[in-house]
Amino acid sequence: xxxxGYNFVLIYKIKPKKKTNGRIIQLQPQNRxxxxxxxxxxxxxxxxxxxxxxxxxxxxxxxxxxxxxKKCKYVGECENLSSRYNMGxxxxxxxxxxxxxxxxxxxxxxxxxxxARAGKxxxxxxxxxxxxxxxxxxxxxxxxxxxxxx
Length: 150
Description:
Elements: E1 2-3, E2 6-7, E3 9-13, E4 62-68, E5 71-78, H1 81-89, H2 103-117, E6 122-128, H3 132-142
Antiparallel strand pairs: 1-2, 3-6, 4-5, 4-6
């Protein structure tokens, strides 16, 4: 897929884990955090989250894009795509739900859960590059990404 002159490759169709009855497993990891009475939840740390994984062997740096029903929703950059997704967006740790946790992980996971529950197709596209910070910023500057914070 060509996005603003960059050729991205399809990595994976994101599908949250499901129960045997076909319903998406929804978790509340914030309830497992030991210090939850002394630290406040971040803006996106409440409610339910899903779990998902991508292949573990994509250890390259680059720029990734989440496409929902063929519409660009989110752009980000990483040093290791598999780690970014499997230990970030796809697996929300209890600590990330609280102030000074990974607010972005919580926000993106919730958006993926919402779209998956609505039956929408969620795909992850990737551009392998060492110039990931510059390219991500260029894409953010030139296109509208509704899931990215301004």
